[in-house]
């Protein structure tokens, strides 16, 4: 702006002087009752200049008002965008609460045996290594949780507690290689052992002559002193009968999606 003024200072000064003289002359004309022919000629010659000045001033005023309006609209849009981000975050929080309520209602629909007491717990950590399949829950000895208690969800067996502190407990998942559960095939009562294999399970010691089918449900047998009877473990997904031996090996798909666990129930026998 300063460079423009310096570059055209002569022109600006001339226009300013002419404009000032014309304004003074116009004012003097207002004081007279009659104008001469010369004065009328001056007025006629200066009319385009007045028109240009008036048009320019109006355009500048319109541009300024448009700028003010545009600035106001931009600020309003910024406020609206902030409100939208806030509402979007609140919507996500409400959706998360709704999903949690659905999971908790599903857990509450599970009815343990009369002599059993259920302790709801939330998962606070997941073992990220490939050596073990464990989770950590937010209930411990202060909540009457101790080693060897079954942990389940509405869909079926999750695992059992193995290490308990005052406020948390580690749970060995049923799919861990160190996990074994006394089990039976629901439709024909064939007994065996469900063993973890890292991602799924196998059902061992099922006699070769027992009729089993893909999709048969395997449940807890109620022996072994940990899991109550009748809790789903998984369904038979593969049958392997060797040409020799007494047993057939069955592969199971767990009833529980371990990748989506968030809340569980710890089952405590009131006699314990």
Task: Please give a structural write-up.
This protein is an alpha+beta fold and 272 residues long. It folds into two domains: 2-67, no CATH class; 110-272, Rod shape-determining protein MreC, domain 1 (Thrombin, subunit H). The chain is built from three helices and twelve strands, in the order H-H-H-E-E-E-E-E-E-E-E-E-E-E-E. It has helices at residues 2-7, 9-31, 37-109; strands at residues 116-126, 134-137, 150-153, 156-164, 169-173, 180-185, 191-196, 201-207, 217-220, 232-240, 247-254, 263-269. A six-stranded antiparallel barrel has the order 1-2-5-4-3-12. Strands 6-7-8-11-10-9 form a six-stranded antiparallel barrel. The longest helix is centred in the N-terminal third of the chain and has 73 residues, at 37-109. The radius of gyration is 43 Å and the shape is elongated. The chain starts with a helix and ends with a strand. The relative contact order is 0.12.
Characterize this entry briefly.
The protein has 272 residues and is α+β, with helices and mostly antiparallel strands. The chain is 38% helix and 29% strand. β4 and β5 form a beta hairpin.
- The CATH class of the largest domain is Mainly Beta
- What is the total domain count? 2
Shape, principal axes of CA atoms: elongated
CATH architecture of the largest domain: Beta Barrel
User: First CA to last CA: what distance?
Assistant: 89 Å
What structural class results from the helix and strand content? alpha+beta
- Average pLDDT number: 78
Spell the H/E element sequence.
HHHEEEEEEEEEEEE
Low-confidence stretches: none
Biggest sheet, spatial arrangement of strands: 1-2-5-4-3-12
What's the main sheet like?
Answer: 6 strands, antiparallel, barrel
CATH domain fold name of the largest domain: Thrombin, subunit H
Number of beta-strand segments:
12
Count of alpha and pi helical runs: 3
Helix content: 25-40%
Bin the strand percentage: 25-35%
CATH homologous superfamily annotation of the largest domain: Rod shape-determining protein MreC, domain 1
């Amino acid at each position: 702006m300063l460079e423009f003024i310096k570059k055209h200072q002569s022109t600006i000064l001339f226009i300013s002087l002419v404009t000032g003289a014309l304004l003074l002359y116009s004012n003097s004309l207002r004081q007279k009752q009659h104008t001469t022919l010369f004065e009328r000629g001056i007025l006629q010659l200066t009319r385009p200049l007045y028109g240009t000045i008036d048009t320019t001033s109006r355009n500048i005023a319109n541009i300024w008002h448009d700028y003010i309006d545009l600035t106001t609209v931009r600020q309003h849009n910024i406020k609206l965008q902030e409100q939208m981000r806030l509402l979007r975050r609140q919507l996500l929080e409400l959706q998360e609460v709704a999903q949690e309520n659905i999971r908790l209602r599903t857990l509450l629909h599970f009815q343990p045996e009369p002599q059993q007491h259920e302790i709801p717990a939330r998962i606070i950590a997941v073992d990220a290594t490939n050596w073990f399949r464990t989770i950590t829950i937010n209930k411990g000895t202060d909540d009457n949780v101790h080693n060897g208690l079954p942990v389940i969800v509405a869909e079926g067996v999750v695992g059992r507690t193995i290490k308990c502190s005052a406020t948390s407990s580690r749970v060995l998942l049923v799919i861990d290689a160190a996990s074994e559960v006394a089990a039976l095939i629901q439709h024909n009562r064939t007994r065996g052992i469900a063993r973890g294999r890292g991602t799924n399970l196998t059902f061992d010691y099922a006699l070769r002559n027992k009729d089993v089918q893909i999709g048969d449900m395997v449940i807890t047998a109620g022996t072994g002193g940990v899991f109550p009877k009748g809790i789903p473990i998984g369904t038979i997904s593969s049958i392997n009968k060797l040409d020799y031996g007494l047993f057939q090996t069955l592969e199971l798909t767990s009833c529980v999606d371990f990748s989506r666990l968030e809340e569980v129930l710890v089952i405590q026998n009131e006699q314990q």
